[in-house]
Amino acid sequence: MNRYLVVEGNIGVGKTTLTQMLSKAWEVPTLYERFLENPFLPRFYEDPKRYAFSVETAFLAERYRQMHDEFEGFDLKKTGLLADYSFYKSLIFARRNLEADEFRLFSELFGIVNSKLPQPYLFVYLKTDTDKLLRNIAKRGRDFEQQITADYLEKIDAGYIDFMQNASGLRCLLVHTHQIDFVQEPEHLHLLQKLLEADYKYGMTEITIR
């Protein structure tokens, strides 16, 4: 697999786990988000309105820095790459978390730096039930995540779907995963792997795995 793919999804959906499993199956390098390094994240969950611009700007800077550094060492057409996040994540979260005037400024900054990065061949979004996300968040036990609400997760999910429906310049694959367990069931992982190896048209393709 010699393509640049990003595996996206809501908080707690298992995107990092799937990226690790696919990387092993395909023998391709990976890029993982260093989200725990954002100093504003715990404060954002306590006071979202006050810290929204700070947390989103810090994520934008860190993601660009990491991606710029990593991409310099890869010939993506030869080695491929799997990432458990996309640079567009910054824009999606910012649209949901920032006030209108803040988002206008943020989107200008985003456009400048995004133009300097390689674009993924496929943007994959794993979608599952909100209750399952909350159970996964509770299970992994990160203290600052325990204040995340169902409303917030649904807001983020809506943001991703809106983005994909309007992303005519990207190949976007929305995969409903609430009926599968790719960690415990090898055949489910195999199904996902085959889906991600296929070719897709630009715009959003929606698939439910049963």
In sequence order, what are the helices and strands, one letter per element? EHEHHHEHHEHHEHE
Q: Helix count, per DSSP?
A: 9
* Amino- and carboxy-terminal Cα gap: 25 Å
Q: Would you count the extended β strands for me?
A: 6
| Tally of individual domains | 1
Which of globular, elongated, flat, extended, rod-shaped describes the shape? globular
CATH superfamily: P-loop containing nucleotide triphosphate hydrolases
Q: What value does the Rg take, in angstroms?
A: 17 Å
Q: Main sheet, how many strands, which sense, barrel?
A: 6 strands, parallel
- Report mean pLDDT, rounded to a whole number: 91
Secondary-structure-based class equals alpha/beta
Uncertain spans, ≥5 residues at pLDDT below 50? none
As for the CATH topology, it is: Rossmann fold
Fraction of residues in H or I helices? 40-55%
Characterization of the model:
This protein is an alpha/beta fold and 210 residues long. It has one domain (4-208): 3-Layer(aba) Sandwich (Rossmann fold), CATH 3.40.50.300. 53% of the residues lie in helices and 14% in strands. It is built from nine helices and six strands. It has helices at 15-26, 41-46, 48-71, 76-79, 88-97, 100-114, 130-140, 150-166, 186-197; strands spanning 4-9, 30-31, 81-83, 122-127, 171-176, 203-208. α3 (48-71) packs antiparallel against α5 and α5 (88-97) crosses α8 (150-166). The protein starts with a strand and ends with a strand. The model has no long low-confidence stretch (mean pLDDT 91).
